[in-house]
Design a protein that fits this description.
One of its GO terms (molecular function) is calcium ion binding. This protein is mostly helical. Helix content is about 60%, strand content about 5%. Helix 3 packs across helix 4. Bound molecules: calcium ion (CA).
């Protein structure tokens, strides 16, 4: 459980916002950043697949364009996204499973980590 100390908050607006957060945590679960990120990874897939186990081509195109455009250069180029989808599709069923989608998330997380640390994770 997160600790709250609102006594040092200066404005009424900050107090209201802190109170709103406390109420929200009391009513709902109050996940930390890591838990939120994992939930987002899962719900983003499920929203794009309409709750199904696999993403079809158009679902994958939409997910990449809408949700990953900030991390990927070619996210709005349909042919590049199609190529990426084929690269991820290890069982060649023409669809992207959750596991195949996680490969993409892992790749992006690794690229982000490398860009932040200035190193390649593959180098030992
Ligand atoms: Ca597949």
């Amino acid at each position: 459980m997160r600790e709250f100390n609102i006594s040092f908050l200066e404005t009424n607006r900050e107090r209201r916002s802190a109170v709103a957060e406390i109420v929200s945590c009391l009513l709902f679960s109050c996940p930390n950043d890591m838990e939120s990120a994992i939930k987002t990874v899962v719900t983003t897939f499920l929203n794009s697949s309409s709750g199904k186990e696999n993403l079809n081509g158009s679902g994958f195109q939409k997910l990449v364009k809408k949700k990953l455009g900030g991390l990927m250069q070619d996210a709005d180029r349909a042919s590049a996204v199609k190529e990426m989808q084929q690269g991820l599709d290890v069982n060649n069923d023409g669809k992207v499973s959750f596991q195949e989608y996680l490969t993409l998330i892992g790749y992006l997380a690794n690229s982000l980590s490398e860009s932040k640390t200035g190193t390649s994770a593959n180098a030992s």
